[in-house]
Protein backbone atom coordinates (compact mmCIF):
# COMPACT_ATOMS: atom_id res chain seq x y z
CA UNK A 1 0.00 0.00 0.00
CA UNK A 2 1.54 3.28 -1.03
CA UNK A 3 0.96 6.56 0.86
CA UNK A 4 0.28 9.68 -1.15
CA UNK A 5 0.98 13.13 0.17
CA UNK A 6 -2.23 15.13 0.35
CA UNK A 7 -1.09 18.36 1.96
CA UNK A 8 1.87 20.12 3.51
CA UNK A 9 2.00 23.00 5.96
CA UNK A 10 4.96 25.08 7.00
CA UNK A 11 4.91 25.41 10.79
CA UNK A 12 7.81 27.18 12.59
CA UNK A 13 10.25 26.23 9.85
CA UNK A 14 9.24 22.51 10.03
CA UNK A 15 7.43 20.75 7.17
CA UNK A 16 4.59 18.63 8.45
CA UNK A 17 3.23 16.04 5.97
CA UNK A 18 -0.28 14.74 6.29
CA UNK A 19 -0.69 11.42 4.54
CA UNK A 20 -3.76 9.35 3.94
CA UNK A 21 -4.29 5.83 2.72
CA UNK A 22 -5.99 5.84 -0.63
CA UNK A 23 -7.90 2.56 -1.01
CA UNK A 24 -7.61 0.79 -4.35
CA UNK A 25 -10.92 0.56 -6.17
CA UNK A 26 -11.51 -2.70 -7.99
CA UNK A 27 -14.27 -2.19 -10.50
CA UNK A 28 -17.08 -4.73 -10.53
CA UNK A 29 -15.45 -6.78 -7.73
CA UNK A 30 -17.83 -7.92 -4.97
CA UNK A 31 -16.50 -8.35 -1.43
CA UNK A 32 -17.07 -11.77 0.22
CA UNK A 33 -16.52 -13.28 3.66
CA UNK A 34 -12.88 -14.36 3.89
CA UNK A 35 -11.15 -17.20 5.79
CA UNK A 36 -8.82 -16.38 8.70
CA UNK A 37 -5.96 -18.71 7.75
CA UNK A 38 -5.07 -20.44 4.46
CA UNK A 39 -2.21 -22.58 3.15
CA UNK A 40 -0.61 -22.60 -0.31
CA UNK A 41 -1.41 -25.80 -2.23
CA UNK A 42 1.25 -28.03 -3.81
CA UNK A 43 2.71 -26.34 -6.87
CA UNK A 44 2.86 -22.91 -5.25
CA UNK A 45 0.77 -19.79 -5.81
CA UNK A 46 1.42 -16.80 -8.06
CA UNK A 47 1.28 -13.34 -6.47
CA UNK A 48 -0.57 -10.64 -8.41
CA UNK A 49 -0.48 -6.86 -7.99
CA UNK A 50 -4.23 -6.65 -8.75
CA UNK A 51 -7.09 -9.20 -8.52
CA UNK A 52 -7.25 -10.08 -12.21
CA UNK A 53 -5.61 -12.75 -14.37
CA UNK A 54 -4.44 -10.14 -16.87
CA UNK A 55 -2.62 -8.29 -14.09
CA UNK A 56 1.04 -8.24 -13.18
CA UNK A 57 2.64 -11.33 -11.58
CA UNK A 58 5.05 -9.98 -8.96
CA UNK A 59 6.22 -13.21 -7.33
CA UNK A 60 5.30 -16.67 -6.04
CA UNK A 61 4.58 -18.35 -2.71
CA UNK A 62 6.07 -21.79 -2.05
CA UNK A 63 3.77 -24.74 -1.34
CA UNK A 64 2.81 -25.08 2.32
CA UNK A 65 3.19 -21.41 3.26
CA UNK A 66 0.60 -20.24 5.83
CA UNK A 67 -1.13 -16.91 5.07
CA UNK A 68 -3.70 -14.65 6.75
CA UNK A 69 -6.01 -12.97 4.21
CA UNK A 70 -7.62 -9.61 4.89
CA UNK A 71 -10.10 -9.49 2.00
CA UNK A 72 -11.92 -11.82 -0.42
CA UNK A 73 -13.49 -10.60 -3.66
CA UNK A 74 -15.25 -12.03 -6.70
CA UNK A 75 -13.77 -10.37 -9.81
CA UNK A 76 -15.55 -9.50 -13.04
CA UNK A 77 -13.46 -12.24 -14.70
CA UNK A 78 -15.36 -14.86 -12.74
CA UNK A 79 -12.62 -15.74 -10.24
CA UNK A 80 -12.34 -15.43 -6.45
CA UNK A 81 -9.26 -13.69 -5.03
CA UNK A 82 -7.80 -13.34 -1.52
CA UNK A 83 -5.82 -10.27 -0.47
CA UNK A 84 -2.68 -10.87 1.62
CA UNK A 85 -0.79 -7.72 2.63
CA UNK A 86 -0.83 -5.46 -0.43
CA UNK A 87 -1.05 -8.21 -3.05
CA UNK A 88 -3.59 -10.74 -4.37
CA UNK A 89 -3.64 -14.53 -4.75
CA UNK A 90 -6.17 -16.72 -6.68
CA UNK A 91 -8.23 -18.67 -4.15
CA UNK A 92 -7.93 -21.77 -6.34
CA UNK A 93 -4.26 -22.12 -5.32
CA UNK A 94 -5.04 -22.02 -1.56
CA UNK A 95 -6.80 -24.26 0.94
CA UNK A 96 -8.65 -23.05 4.04
CA UNK A 97 -7.17 -23.99 7.43
CA UNK A 98 -9.19 -21.73 9.74
CA UNK A 99 -12.28 -19.62 9.23
CA UNK A 100 -15.33 -19.88 6.99
CA UNK A 101 -14.50 -22.02 3.93
CA UNK A 102 -15.76 -20.94 0.49
CA UNK A 103 -19.48 -21.63 0.34
CA UNK A 104 -22.17 -21.12 -2.23
CA UNK A 105 -24.10 -18.95 0.23
CA UNK A 106 -21.20 -16.54 0.53
CA UNK A 107 -20.39 -16.20 -3.16
CA UNK A 108 -22.34 -14.30 -5.80
CA UNK A 109 -23.73 -16.26 -8.71
CA UNK A 110 -21.60 -15.48 -11.77
CA UNK A 111 -22.96 -15.70 -15.33
CA UNK A 112 -21.15 -19.00 -15.79
CA UNK A 113 -19.95 -21.36 -13.08
CA UNK A 114 -16.23 -21.61 -12.41
CA UNK A 115 -15.44 -24.49 -10.01
CA UNK A 116 -12.05 -24.75 -8.36
CA UNK A 117 -9.70 -27.17 -10.10
CA UNK A 118 -9.44 -30.69 -8.77
CA UNK A 119 -5.82 -31.56 -7.82
CA UNK A 120 -4.16 -34.05 -10.12
CA UNK A 121 -3.99 -37.57 -8.66
CA UNK A 122 -0.98 -39.80 -9.41
CA UNK A 123 -1.74 -43.08 -11.16
CA UNK A 124 -0.25 -46.55 -11.53
CA UNK A 125 1.50 -47.14 -14.89
CA UNK A 126 -1.08 -49.79 -15.84
CA UNK A 127 -4.05 -47.61 -14.91
CA UNK A 128 -3.47 -43.92 -15.74
CA UNK A 129 -5.64 -41.60 -13.71
CA UNK A 130 -8.74 -40.05 -15.23
CA UNK A 131 -8.09 -36.38 -16.03
CA UNK A 132 -9.97 -33.85 -13.94
CA UNK A 133 -12.21 -31.42 -15.80
CA UNK A 134 -11.86 -28.01 -14.17
CA UNK A 135 -13.12 -24.91 -15.90
CA UNK A 136 -11.09 -22.36 -13.94
CA UNK A 137 -10.23 -19.02 -15.57
CA UNK A 138 -6.96 -18.89 -17.46
CA UNK A 139 -3.87 -17.78 -15.58
CA UNK A 140 -1.22 -15.39 -16.87
CA UNK A 141 1.44 -17.46 -18.70
CA UNK A 142 5.05 -16.97 -17.76
CA UNK A 143 7.47 -16.18 -20.54
CA UNK A 144 8.84 -19.36 -22.08
CA UNK A 145 12.45 -19.67 -20.97
CA UNK A 146 15.24 -19.56 -23.52
CA UNK A 147 17.26 -22.39 -22.05
CA UNK A 148 20.85 -21.67 -23.10
CA UNK A 149 22.20 -23.24 -19.92
CA UNK A 150 20.38 -26.61 -19.69
CA UNK A 151 18.14 -27.11 -16.70
CA UNK A 152 17.66 -30.64 -15.48
CA UNK A 153 14.80 -32.00 -13.45
CA UNK A 154 13.64 -35.11 -11.66
CA UNK A 155 10.15 -36.51 -11.19
CA UNK A 156 9.15 -36.68 -7.53
CA UNK A 157 6.29 -38.54 -5.79
CA UNK A 158 5.64 -39.58 -2.20
CA UNK A 159 5.03 -43.17 -3.30
CA UNK A 160 7.90 -44.63 -5.33
CA UNK A 161 5.52 -47.17 -6.92
CA UNK A 162 3.20 -44.48 -8.26
CA UNK A 163 3.71 -43.05 -11.76
CA UNK A 164 2.87 -39.45 -12.69
CA UNK A 165 1.05 -38.45 -15.86
CA UNK A 166 2.94 -36.66 -18.64
CA UNK A 167 0.40 -34.66 -20.65
CA UNK A 168 0.08 -33.24 -24.13
CA UNK A 169 -0.74 -29.72 -22.83
CA UNK A 170 -0.24 -27.95 -19.45
CA UNK A 171 -3.67 -28.91 -18.06
CA UNK A 172 -5.27 -31.95 -16.43
CA UNK A 173 -7.89 -31.82 -19.20
CA UNK A 174 -5.20 -32.79 -21.70
CA UNK A 175 -4.41 -36.27 -22.96
CA UNK A 176 -1.96 -38.35 -20.91
CA UNK A 177 0.94 -39.40 -23.14
CA UNK A 178 2.66 -41.68 -20.62
CA UNK A 179 3.16 -42.17 -16.89
CA UNK A 180 6.59 -41.77 -15.30
CA UNK A 181 7.82 -43.02 -11.92
CA UNK A 182 9.55 -40.97 -9.26
CA UNK A 183 13.27 -40.46 -9.85
CA UNK A 184 13.09 -40.33 -13.65
CA UNK A 185 15.53 -37.64 -14.96
CA UNK A 186 14.47 -35.06 -17.55
CA UNK A 187 15.50 -31.82 -19.23
CA UNK A 188 13.34 -28.70 -18.80
CA UNK A 189 12.24 -27.28 -22.17
CA UNK A 190 9.61 -24.73 -21.11
CA UNK A 191 7.54 -23.58 -18.16
CA UNK A 192 4.23 -21.77 -17.83
CA UNK A 193 1.54 -20.88 -15.31
CA UNK A 194 -1.46 -23.11 -15.99
CA UNK A 195 -5.11 -22.14 -15.85
CA UNK A 196 -5.26 -24.05 -12.53
CA UNK A 197 -2.70 -21.59 -11.04
CA UNK A 198 0.00 -24.29 -10.90
CA UNK A 199 3.40 -24.00 -12.59
CA UNK A 200 3.75 -26.59 -15.38
CA UNK A 201 6.99 -27.80 -16.97
CA UNK A 202 7.52 -29.21 -20.44
CA UNK A 203 10.02 -32.03 -19.93
CA UNK A 204 12.16 -34.11 -22.27
CA UNK A 205 12.73 -37.67 -21.04
CA UNK A 206 15.84 -38.67 -22.99
CA UNK A 207 15.96 -42.24 -21.66
CA UNK A 208 12.32 -42.84 -22.58
CA UNK A 209 12.46 -40.96 -25.87
CA UNK A 210 9.40 -38.85 -24.96
CA UNK A 211 8.44 -35.34 -23.90
CA UNK A 212 5.37 -33.63 -22.50
CA UNK A 213 3.94 -31.45 -19.72
CA UNK A 214 4.00 -32.26 -16.00
CA UNK A 215 2.59 -30.23 -13.11
CA UNK A 216 5.17 -28.45 -10.96
CA UNK A 217 4.42 -30.20 -7.65
CA UNK A 218 5.72 -33.44 -9.21
CA UNK A 219 8.91 -31.85 -10.58
CA UNK A 220 12.17 -31.00 -8.81
CA UNK A 221 14.14 -28.56 -11.01
CA UNK A 222 17.90 -28.12 -10.84
CA UNK A 223 19.90 -25.40 -12.59
CA UNK A 224 23.17 -26.51 -14.13
CA UNK A 225 26.03 -24.13 -13.42
CA UNK A 226 27.49 -22.53 -16.52
CA UNK A 227 30.98 -22.79 -15.00
CA UNK A 228 32.42 -24.21 -11.78
CA UNK A 229 32.16 -21.76 -8.90
CA UNK A 230 35.74 -22.54 -7.90
CA UNK A 231 37.05 -20.95 -11.13
CA UNK A 232 34.62 -18.02 -11.25
CA UNK A 233 35.92 -14.58 -10.36
CA UNK A 234 34.41 -13.16 -7.15
CA UNK A 235 31.56 -10.73 -7.88
CA UNK A 236 32.42 -7.04 -7.79
CA UNK A 237 29.15 -6.14 -6.08
CA UNK A 238 27.87 -9.24 -4.23
CA UNK A 239 24.28 -9.26 -3.10
CA UNK A 240 21.46 -11.49 -1.87
CA UNK A 241 17.79 -11.61 -2.80
CA UNK A 242 15.72 -10.59 0.23
CA UNK A 243 12.05 -11.46 0.79
CA UNK A 244 9.72 -12.90 3.47
CA UNK A 245 9.82 -16.69 4.07
CA UNK A 246 8.16 -18.61 1.25
CA UNK A 247 7.93 -15.61 -1.11
CA UNK A 248 9.64 -15.84 -4.50
CA UNK A 249 10.95 -12.68 -6.15
CA UNK A 250 10.23 -12.43 -9.88
CA UNK A 251 13.06 -10.87 -11.90
CA UNK A 252 11.73 -8.21 -14.30
CA UNK A 253 12.74 -7.45 -17.88
CA UNK A 254 12.73 -3.70 -17.13
CA UNK A 255 13.02 -1.62 -13.92
CA UNK A 256 9.24 -1.53 -13.46
CA UNK A 257 6.54 -3.78 -11.97
CA UNK A 258 5.27 -4.97 -15.34
CA UNK A 259 6.85 -7.80 -17.30
CA UNK A 260 8.50 -10.68 -15.45
CA UNK A 261 11.25 -12.91 -16.80
CA UNK A 262 11.06 -16.69 -16.36
CA UNK A 263 13.46 -16.44 -13.42
CA UNK A 264 12.30 -16.63 -9.79
CA UNK A 265 14.49 -16.37 -6.71
CA UNK A 266 13.89 -17.17 -3.06
CA UNK A 267 15.34 -15.18 -0.18
CA UNK A 268 19.08 -15.77 0.21
CA UNK A 269 19.77 -16.41 -3.49
CA UNK A 270 23.29 -15.07 -4.16
CA UNK A 271 23.47 -12.52 -6.98
CA UNK A 272 25.76 -9.85 -8.39
CA UNK A 273 24.48 -6.27 -8.63
CA UNK A 274 25.32 -5.10 -12.15
CA UNK A 275 23.59 -1.74 -12.38
CA UNK A 276 21.38 0.68 -10.41
CA UNK A 277 18.76 3.04 -11.85
CA UNK A 278 15.81 5.12 -10.71
CA UNK A 279 12.78 3.22 -12.01
CA UNK A 280 9.64 4.51 -13.68
CA UNK A 281 7.99 4.47 -10.25
CA UNK A 282 10.71 6.72 -8.81
CA UNK A 283 12.16 3.92 -6.65
CA UNK A 284 15.58 2.24 -6.68
CA UNK A 285 16.00 -0.76 -9.02
CA UNK A 286 18.97 -3.07 -9.52
CA UNK A 287 19.94 -5.27 -12.45
CA UNK A 288 21.15 -8.56 -10.96
CA UNK A 289 22.62 -11.84 -12.16
CA UNK A 290 22.53 -15.20 -10.39
CA UNK A 291 26.00 -16.36 -9.31
CA UNK A 292 25.12 -19.98 -10.13
CA UNK A 293 23.58 -19.28 -13.54
CA UNK A 294 25.04 -16.59 -15.80
CA UNK A 295 21.94 -16.69 -18.02
CA UNK A 296 19.63 -15.68 -15.17
CA UNK A 297 19.47 -11.88 -15.21
CA UNK A 298 16.78 -9.31 -14.50
CA UNK A 299 15.65 -6.29 -12.49
CA UNK A 300 14.56 -6.29 -8.85
CA UNK A 301 13.31 -3.44 -6.67
CA UNK A 302 15.68 -2.03 -4.05
CA UNK A 303 13.92 -3.65 -1.09
CA UNK A 304 14.26 -7.11 -2.70
CA UNK A 305 18.07 -7.25 -2.72
CA UNK A 306 20.84 -6.35 -0.25
CA UNK A 307 24.32 -5.14 -1.19
CA UNK A 308 26.64 -7.44 0.77
CA UNK A 309 29.79 -5.33 1.13
CA UNK A 310 31.74 -3.99 4.10
CA UNK A 311 30.29 -0.81 5.57
CA UNK A 312 33.38 0.02 7.62
CA UNK A 313 33.52 3.11 5.44
CA UNK A 314 30.06 4.64 4.75
CA UNK A 315 28.77 4.17 1.20
CA UNK A 316 27.41 7.06 -0.87
CA UNK A 317 23.75 6.93 -1.89
CA UNK A 318 20.73 9.08 -2.72
CA UNK A 319 17.20 8.83 -1.42
CA UNK A 320 14.61 7.83 -4.01
CA UNK A 321 10.82 8.01 -4.02
CA UNK A 322 7.79 8.34 -6.25
CA UNK A 323 6.86 11.90 -7.28
CA UNK A 324 5.34 13.77 -4.31
CA UNK A 325 6.24 11.03 -1.82
CA UNK A 326 8.03 11.87 1.43
CA UNK A 327 10.52 9.26 2.71
CA UNK A 328 10.08 8.14 6.32
CA UNK A 329 12.97 7.38 8.69
CA UNK A 330 12.68 4.70 11.40
CA UNK A 331 14.45 3.99 14.70
CA UNK A 332 14.69 0.29 13.77
CA UNK A 333 14.18 -1.65 10.51
CA UNK A 334 10.49 -1.98 11.32
CA UNK A 335 7.50 0.13 10.20
CA UNK A 336 6.14 0.53 13.75
CA UNK A 337 9.24 2.53 14.82
CA UNK A 338 8.76 5.68 12.69
CA UNK A 339 10.77 8.76 13.64
CA UNK A 340 9.69 12.43 13.33
CA UNK A 341 12.17 12.74 10.46
CA UNK A 342 11.51 12.85 6.73
CA UNK A 343 13.64 12.86 3.59
CA UNK A 344 13.03 13.78 -0.05
CA UNK A 345 13.98 12.09 -3.30
CA UNK A 346 17.46 13.06 -4.52
CA UNK A 347 18.80 13.89 -1.06
CA UNK A 348 22.41 12.68 -0.54
CA UNK A 349 22.99 10.24 2.33
CA UNK A 350 25.72 7.96 3.69
CA UNK A 351 24.86 4.27 4.15
CA UNK A 352 26.17 2.90 7.46
CA UNK A 353 24.86 -0.69 7.38
CA UNK A 354 22.22 -2.98 5.91
CA UNK A 355 19.92 -5.70 7.25
CA UNK A 356 16.81 -7.76 6.55
CA UNK A 357 13.91 -6.03 8.31
CA UNK A 358 11.04 -7.60 10.23
CA UNK A 359 8.91 -7.37 7.05
CA UNK A 360 11.38 -9.66 5.29
CA UNK A 361 12.81 -6.99 2.96
CA UNK A 362 16.03 -4.94 2.75
CA UNK A 363 16.63 -1.90 4.97
CA UNK A 364 19.58 0.51 5.21
CA UNK A 365 20.79 2.66 8.11
CA UNK A 366 21.57 6.08 6.62
CA UNK A 367 22.80 9.50 7.71
CA UNK A 368 21.86 12.68 5.83
CA UNK A 369 25.12 14.13 4.50
CA UNK A 370 24.49 17.80 5.34
CA UNK A 371 22.70 17.01 8.64
CA UNK A 372 24.85 14.58 10.69
CA UNK A 373 22.22 14.33 13.44
CA UNK A 374 19.58 13.22 10.92
CA UNK A 375 20.02 9.44 11.00
CA UNK A 376 17.75 6.40 10.87
CA UNK A 377 16.64 3.31 8.98
CA UNK A 378 15.12 3.61 5.49
CA UNK A 379 13.45 0.97 3.31
CA UNK A 380 15.66 -0.46 0.57
CA UNK A 381 13.38 0.74 -2.23
CA UNK A 382 14.08 4.34 -1.11
CA UNK A 383 17.91 4.07 -1.31
CA UNK A 384 19.86 4.33 -4.58
CA UNK A 385 23.28 2.89 -3.82
CA UNK A 386 26.27 4.17 -5.79
CA UNK A 387 27.74 0.85 -6.95
UniProtKB/TrEMBL annotation:
Ranges of Pro residues composition bias in the record: 99-122
Region ranges (Disordered): 98-147
Record's signal peptide: 1-19
Boundaries of every SH3b domain copy: 157-222
Keyword Transferase on entry: no
Signal recorded as keyword: yes
Highest taxon of source: Bacteria
Keyword set, alphabetical order: Signal
Biased composition (Low complexity): 123-138
Protein name as catalogued: SH3b domain-containing protein
Annotated source species: Acaryochloris marina (strain MBIC 11017)
Amino acid sequence: MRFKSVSTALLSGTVMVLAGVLPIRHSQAETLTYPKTVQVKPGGASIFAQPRNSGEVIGEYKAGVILNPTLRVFSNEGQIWLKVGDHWIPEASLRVIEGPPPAAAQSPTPPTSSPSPTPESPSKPSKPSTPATPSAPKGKPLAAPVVKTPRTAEVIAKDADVAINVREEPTTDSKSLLAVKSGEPAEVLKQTLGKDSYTWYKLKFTRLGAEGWMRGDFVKVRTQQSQPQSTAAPPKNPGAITSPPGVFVALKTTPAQQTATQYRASSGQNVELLKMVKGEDGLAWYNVQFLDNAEAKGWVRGDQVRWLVSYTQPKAAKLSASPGQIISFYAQPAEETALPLRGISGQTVEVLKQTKGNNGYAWYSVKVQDKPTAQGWVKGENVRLQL
